[in-house]
Amino acid sequence: MSSVCAGMQPSGEVPRSKKNLEEPEVFAPTACRLTPGGRSIWGSSTARAKDMTRQLAVFLFTAFALLLASFAAQAQQFEDIGDYRVHYSAMNTRMLPAEVASAYGITRSGRRAMINITVLRNAGSDDSMAVPVSGSVQASAINLTGQRREIALQEIREEDAVYYIGTFRISNEETLTFDISVRPEDSKRPPARFSFQQKFYVEE
């Protein structure tokens, strides 16, 4: 091996001070391994761990995005506002996989639901695809008795996707009317508003 890790002495004669000449020296092992070329692999192991964490995060987000997209597609819920289309969906958080909920700080509970909003800029031609955009997105809900709930939305951005999600409490067989306000970041128009209604069921 051509080099050694910090904190280790090379093989051969071990230097000693005159005062401790007759006392054997003790060398504490270090958490370091060397490649045949003498290069420490501590850094490469750390890099591999970071890369695995990154891959897991991408996998969880992909699973999360596919789940949200499937709900939006099944419900066919969207609102056209000028050059943009806003997709939206709501579901019980119990339907989320535990790993996905944990990764995004979402509490899985049969008494909590989640709203998901995505803003897409319409394609300019048949050969191009709609582009996800960020912006100012707000949401609130009101039940049939007039109780209003403000929903704090979190922006999730990964790769080429942008989602706005927020959670809120629900009661069994509760009907909520959602008020949504959207203003895409590259739009000069005032925020567009629309509403939709959905009934929720508690899942124990």
Descriptive keywords:
globular; single chain; 10 strands; 6-stranded antiparallel beta sheet; 4-stranded antiparallel beta sheet; alpha+beta
Structural account:
There is one protein chain. By secondary structure, this protein is an alpha+beta fold. The protein has a single domain, classed as Immunoglobulin-like. It has two helices and ten strands, in the order αββαββββββββ. Strands 1, 2, 3, 4, 7 and 8 form a six-stranded antiparallel beta sheet that branches. The chain has a four-stranded antiparallel beta sheet with strand order 6-5-9-10, with no helix packed on it. The longest helix has 34 residues. The N and C termini lie far apart (61 Å). The N terminus is likely disordered.
List the helices and strands and how they pair.
Blueprint: H1 42-75, E1 78-81, E2 84-92, H2 98-103, E3 112-121, E4 131-132, E5 135-143, E6 148-151, E7 154-158, E8 161-169, E9 174-184, E10 192-200
Antiparallel strand pairs: 1-2, 2-3, 3-4, 3-8, 5-6, 5-9, 7-8, 9-10
